[in-house]
Design a protein that fits this description.
This protein is α+β, with helices and mostly antiparallel strands. Helices cover 37% and strands 30% of the residues. Strands 1, 2, 3 and 4 form a four-stranded antiparallel sheet that branches. A three-stranded antiparallel sheet has the order 5-7-6.
Length: 180
């Protein structure tokens, strides 16, 4: 076990050799396999949160590097090329995962729910405000939708009173919206 759901995220990981699987949620008693990780891949999602929301297990013998979360965050803040490469890789991985889920007939949450979940999960808890770290175009690509679709859903969320957008990339959610 590399890390387990619900544990504190102290490290980002890079798989040097072997293979690992990422699990999240459950189908009955069995964890739901989400993604296969190969040598050279990073396990960094938890580096942006405080608690692991998935589990990772080595499925073939191998080796992985641990990087303290604070050091990892410093590295990507200090090295724009590394940060862009990692975000591009994450976006590709997310698109592949979504395609895989759809191909297997698994439910992918509606865009409205994914937006609200993202904003609630990543916003400052005190102010309930999120400054999106990249453009809406990049966010649309990450979500796997057209820019126009994202903009339309954001306008509807504003109209419904669930989100406010003081600026293009700033979101403020209402108190009754929580991360699901």
């Amino acid at each position: 076990m590399i890390f387990r759901t619900g544990t504190k995220a102290a490290f980002a990981y890079r798989l040097v050799s072997g293979r690992a699987d990422i699990f999240g949620g459950h189908t009955g008693r069995n964890p739901l396999p989400l993604y296969h990780v190969s040598a050279g891949d990073y396990l960094i999602e938890a580096a942006f949160g405080a608690i692991h929301d998935t589990s990772a297990t080595c499925t073939t013998p191998g080796e992985f590097q641990r990087i303290q979360v604070a050091k990892f965050r410093y590295l990507i803040q200090d090295d724009a090329i590394l940060a862009q490469a990692l975000f591009r890789k994450l976006a590709r991985d997310i698109a592949e995962l979504r395609h895989s889920c759809q191909h297997r007939g698994q439910h992918v949450a509606p865009l409205r729910e994914r937006i609200l979940t993202y904003v609630a999960k990543h916003a400052d808890p005190a102010s309930r405000t999120l400054e999106l770290p990249y453009s809406l175009t990049q966010w649309a690509k990450e979500l796997g939708v057209a820019n126009e679709t994202l903009s339309r859903v954001l306008r509807q969320l504003q109209f419904d009173g669930l989100l406010e957008r003081p600026t293009t990339r700033t979101f403020h959610y209402k108190a009754h919206v929580t991360a699901w």
